[in-house]
Give the backbone structure.
Amino acid sequence: MPLLADITTHRSICRVCHGGCGVIVYSDGERVLGVKGDVRSPISRGWMCIKGLKSADIANHPQRLKTPLKRKGQRGQGLWQEIGWQEALDEIALRIDDLRGQHGAESIVIGQGTGRHHYMHVVRFANALGTPNWYEPGLAQCLIPRITVSHLTYGGLPVADYYGQRAPECIVFWGHNPLVSSADAELAPALMRVLRNDCMTIAIDPRRSETARRCRMWLPIRPGTDAALALAMINVIIAKGLYDAEFIDRHTVGFDELRNHTVPFTPRWASGITRISAADIEEAACLYGRLRPAVLEWGVGLEQNSNSLQGVRAVAILRAITGNLDSPGGDILGMNVLRSYPLLRDKLPPEQSKKRIGAERFKLLGGWRAYMPSAHIPGVFDAINDGVPYRLRGLLIFGSNPLLTLANPKRVLEGIKKLDLLVVTDMFMTPTALQADYVLPAAFWTEIDHLMGVPLVAENFVFAQSAIVYTPHCRQDEWIIDELSRRLHLPGSEVSFKDIFDYQLQPLGINFAKASEMIYICPPHRYYKYLQDGFRTPSGKVELYSASLKRMGYDPLPSHVEPPEGPEASPELLDEYPFVLITGSRRVEFFHSEHRQIEALRRRRPRPQAQLHTSVAKARGIRHGDEVIIRTRRGQITMTAEVTDDIAPYVVSVEHGWWFPERLFDPEALWQANANVLTDDAPPYDPAFGSYRLRGLLCDVRKKKKAKKERGGSAPLQNPLQGHQCP
Ligand SMILES: Nc1nc2c(c(=O)[nH]1)N[C@H]1C(S)=C(S)[C@@H](COP(=O)(O)OP(=O)(O)OC[C@H]3O[C@@H](n4cnc5c(=O)[nH]c(N)nc54)[C@H](O)[C@@H]3O)O[C@H]1N2
Ligand SMILES: Nc1nc2c(c(=O)[nH]1)N[C@H]1C(S)=C(S)[C@@H](COP(=O)(O)OP(=O)(O)OC[C@H]3O[C@@H](n4cnc5c(=O)[nH]c(N)nc54)[C@H](O)[C@@H]3O)O[C@H]1N2
Ligand code: SF4
Ligand SMILES: [Mo]
C-alpha cells in the first residue's frame, strides 16, 4: 500500500478508445493507482466513460504481456520461449530482411488496428520498408469513404461544431451513435452539453440507439438503403426551395445536374426502399432544410456495405446544399493545426505502389487518388492463401485482432497458418497473437508519449501527453517500429517518433516538451475559410457533380444500389433467412474485441447479446435472456437474446468482437459468438473503396434448444419482410 505522500498526480489524455478525454492520473511512480476526469479539459470537462475510468484495471491487469515471446510449438499451441527485447528485435529484423531479399518487400503485409496513437507511424514504416501492402480493419469499412468523399466534394472532412459560441438548431445522427462511441475523438460529453439545448434532433438508424432515444424523431431505416433516403431528402429540399441559393450560386458546381438527377427520387420512391414513411422522409427533409445552423453527424452505419461511395456522397451533398458548411454551430471544416505526418510516401517506389493488392480495381482505397492508399483486405487474404496475384508471406500486426474484427475470420485463420512470419504487438494474448511467431508486449496509454489532433483528421485542437509510468517490459509501438527501422537501415530511421512530434508542432511555435506541459492546445476556430481560400477541390468550389469521380469511372452523381443480399435483391433466401442482420453497434464497456478480460467491465456485460424485436421474439418463442442461434448463409453463432421494441421489427443486431479470454485455448470458443462468422468478405464490393458487408445481410434467429426439446420446432413465423407496409 503506497503512502499518501508517495502518490503523485498527473494530467493526461485517455486513449482507451480513439481517445481525447482529459484525465487526472494517480500513480506511485511504478503503477497507475486510479484515474478521474479532468475538469480542465476543454472538451470532456471532467467526464469519462466507464472504460476510461477502469484504466488502472487495464494497466495493471495480471494477464498483460510482460516480455517478448517466441513461438516454440505449433501455431496456436501457446508454447513460448521468453526472450529479451534486443534478441526479439534482432531476430524479427533478420526475418523481415530475408523475406524482403528473397520475395520482395511487397511480400510483407503490415496490419494495424483502428485509430491508435501509432497509426501514422505504421503507414510511414510500410512506405519506408517498401511494401504497398498495409491494411486496417476499418478503412474501406470505416471512415475512409467519409474522408475521401468529403475531400472530393468539399476538400476536407467536416465535424460538428459543438465548441463555438453558437449551438446547432438541428442535429441529424446518420448511422451514428456518438453518445456511446465518442468516435474519432468527437467526444460524447460535448454532445451531451449540446443536447441540453432545445434543438431539433433526428436519428436515422435501424435501432433506437442510445443517441436515437434522446432524439425527437427516429427514422428506422432498412440497413444499406441510406443513399435512397438521402436522395429523397435532396429531392424535397430542392423541390421546396429550402436550399441555400446564394451559397449554391457562389460556391458550388453541378447544382443543375443534381436537380435533374434527383427529380425521380421522391419520398414515395424512397419509402418503398427504406421502409420509412414518405411523410416522415418529407418532414425530416423539411426540418433539416429549414433549421440553421444544422449539423449532420455521420457514422460507420453508412460505410459497412457495398454502396459506401454513393451512400456517403448522397449524405455529404445534403450538407452542401443547405449551406451548413464551415458555419458557426454547423459542420465545420478542419483547421489541421498540426503539420501533416511525414509518411515517407516518396520512399515507396512507383513500381512497388503498382503491386498494391486491389489498387487498380478499388481506386479510392488503393489507387493514386486514394486519401491514404492501402491494400484490399479480402485480396490480401487471397494472396496469403492462394498466392494470387503473388504470395504474401509475412504479416506484422500492430494493435489489431483480425480473427475477431475482419469478415470471414475462418479464412483469415487459414491464411495465418500459412504465413512464414507473423509478428503481433499487443497488450494481451489474443486469439490472433496466439498464432504468432513473435509476440511483443505493447505499452498502455499511461505509458506512452503522444501527440494527437482532435477530432481525428480534422485536427482543430491538439492534445499532448507524456508517459506517466515507464514499465520496464512493455514498449510503445512507435519505439518498436523505430528500432526495427534502424536495424533494417530504412530511410527516415535516423529520425525518432519524438522528433516527428516536434516537427508536427512547428506551426504552433512549440515543441513536444512544451505541448505536453500544456496538454490542451485550442487555437480559435476560423469559420467560413472558403470565403478567403476557396474549397480545396479542383474547381475551388463544392463539387455537387464530381468530374473527378467521372474521370475515374464512377458515377459523378449518387444513386441507390440495392444491398446484394436482401429482401429485394434475393427474395429466394427469405424463407430460410427472413431477417436483416446488422453487426457491431458499439457498447460503452468494450472497444471492439478488447476488455473481455477486465472484470469490472465484463461484469456489466458478461455475455454477447443479440437485439431482436418483441414481435420476432414472440413468434419464435424467444424470451429475453434466452440463448439464441443466429445464422446466415456463411455460418452460425450463439448469443443471448435482448428483446426490445427499440429496433425495426425485421432487424437483428449482434455485438461484434466477442471472444472468451477464459477459454483462449478452446478452438471452438473463437467461433462461438464471433459476429464475423456471419458477415461477408465476398464480392460484390463497393466499386471505389472495395468495402465489404458487415451490415445489411440476411439472417435467421432461433431459440437454442436443449437437446431433448429440439424436435418441437418453433412456431411458424410470418415473414416480417414480406408484407411490411409503410404507414
Ligand atoms: N462485424 C463487425 N466487425 C467489425 C466492425 C463492425 O462494426 N462489425 N467494425 C470494424 C471497424 S469500424 C474497425 S475500426 C475494426 C477494429 O478492429 P481492430 O482494430 O482489430 O480492433 P480491436 O479489437 O480494438 O483490436 C485492437 C487490439 O489491439 C490491442 N491494443 C490496444 N491498444 C494498443 C496499443 O496501443 N498498441 C498495440 N500494439 N496494441 C493495442 C488490443 O488489446 C486489441 O487486441 O473492426 C471492424 N470489425
Ligand atoms: N465503446 C466503443 N466505442 C467505440 C468503438 C467500440 O468498439 N466501442 N469503436 C470505435 C470505432 S473504430 C468506430 S468506427 C466508431 C463507430 O461509431 P458509430 O458510427 O457511432 O457507431 P456504431 O455503433 O458502430 O454504428 C452506429 C449506428 O449505425 C446503425 N446502423 C447499422 N446499420 C445501419 C445502416 O445500414 N444505416 C444506418 N443509417 N444506420 C445503421 C447501428 O444501429 C448503430 O446504432 O466507434 C468508435 N468508438
Ligand atoms: S470516451 Fe474514450 S477517451 Fe473518453 S474516457 Fe471513454 S475510453 Fe477514454
Ligand atoms: Mo472503426
About this structure: Residues 158-333 form a domain with the Dimethylsulfoxide Reductase; domain 2 fold (CATH 3.40.228.10). The first strand starts at residue 8 and ends at 13.
